[in-house]
Amino acid sequence: MKSTLRALAAATLSATLLTGAAATSYAAATPSPKASASASAEQASLTVTVDKTEVKAGDKVHVTGRTKGLKIGSKVVLQHKKNGKWTTLKAETVVKNGSSYALDAKLNTKGAEELRVQSGEVSSPSVTVTVS
């Protein structure tokens, strides 16, 4: 009876070890999923800061910020909200060493200008500058 129990225990242990090894080798052989472009865009971010929150029409605003997850040399454009849609202004730059950017924009339209920066599909939060 003891020898039967030993044989049964040895068989169970062997089966468990083989099953575990097979699962481990399967897991190692299964390729991990790769990040998609949209997943990368979700991980990237931009910040935006303006040097003045109130300017006169025709004055320049200095816009700076930092990036995360964007390559150095990536294009950054300034946008403003016009009639509920984001429109690109004639102000652009590239991400520099240290993941920062800086640009100047001349604001001519009187009123509250809602501004943001964008690089590819990544946009910053908006800031408001009052133009008088």
UniProtKB/TrEMBL annotation:
Signal peptide range in chain numbering: 1-27
Keywords: Signal
Name under which the protein is recorded: DUF5666 domain-containing protein
Naturally occurring in which organism (per UniProt): Streptomyces polychromogenes
